User: Which sequence fits this backbone?
């Protein structure tokens, strides 16, 4: 009888030891349940949303489309200020004729004031006091006079008798950075391709190139190098930023290499 009582006592002692452990386990489960039940799923979702204030790399499809529309609007506005320039008088209603770049020396210019001042290359318009002929986007033709020119930088200003003309905004060429997008506008070849727009990047700045022609050697300095398409007839046209600011004048193409063109800075 004594042996059985001793065994029963041990069982009771084990049960007494288990009771606190069970109580602690139950309390732990209750606390754990309350903790997770109080978590607000909406707060978690809010935290998982992208931070609109953080810098994001790249553009969405909608932003690309919107930027494209904005650039198209800018180019359309600038194009209205781009003119055709010829050293010879046209034989028809416009200087934009078949093979005009060869027959008439067709080039490009840009209106820089509403009263008829036009910026171009000297090799397009001729030197100071010479005459040339200008065709506006709306088809009107004007006799023009070269009122200023500088052969060292190959720039000239031409004047026509007209008012209320659309004109370009001259930007700061010193702000142009390598890798930035630019657009060239001009009249390559002739009538079929008037006011052609090409795009590229600024490939380099502050370039100096050597020009050899008619046994004369000269140097053009502070040029912007770009890979935007520039061909005969583009000379004198604007090189613009996506904002529409003119930062260069299309001037020279290296014929011995692809994608190397130069623009005079204004």
Assistant:
């Amino acid at each position: 009888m004594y042996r059985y009582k001793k065994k029963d006592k041990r069982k009771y002692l084990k049960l007494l030891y288990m009771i606190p452990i069970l109580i602690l386990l139950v309390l732990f489960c209750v606390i754990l349940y309350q903790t997770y039940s109080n978590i607000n799923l909406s707060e978690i979702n809010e935290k998982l949303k992208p931070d609109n204030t953080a810098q994001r790399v790249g553009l969405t499809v909608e932003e690309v489309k919107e930027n494209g529309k904005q650039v198209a609007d800018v180019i359309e506005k600038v194009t209205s200020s781009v003119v055709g320039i010829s050293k010879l008088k046209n034989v028809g209603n416009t200087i934009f004729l078949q093979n005009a770049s060869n027959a008439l020396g067709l080039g490009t210019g840009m209106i820089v004031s509403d009263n008829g001042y036009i910026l171009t290359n000297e090799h397009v318009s001729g030197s100071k006091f010479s005459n040339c002929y200008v065709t506006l986007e709306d088809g009107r033709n004007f006799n023009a006079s070269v009122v200023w020119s500088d052969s060292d930088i190959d720039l000239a200003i031409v004047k026509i008798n007209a008012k209320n003309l659309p004109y370009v905004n001259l930007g700061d060429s010193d702000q142009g950075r390598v890798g930035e997008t630019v657009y060239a506008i001009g009249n390559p070849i002739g009538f079929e391709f008037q006011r052609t727009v090409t795009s590229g990047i600024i490939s380099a700045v502050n370039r100096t190139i050597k020009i050899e022609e008619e046994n004369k050697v000269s140097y053009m300095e502070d040029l912007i190098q770009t890979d935007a398409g520039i061909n005969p007839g583009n000379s004198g046209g604007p090189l613009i930023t996506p904002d529409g600011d003119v930062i260069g004048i299309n001037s020279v193409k290296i014929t011995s290499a692809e994608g190397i063109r130069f623009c005079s800075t204004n």
In short: Residues 98-103 have pLDDT under 50 and may be disordered.
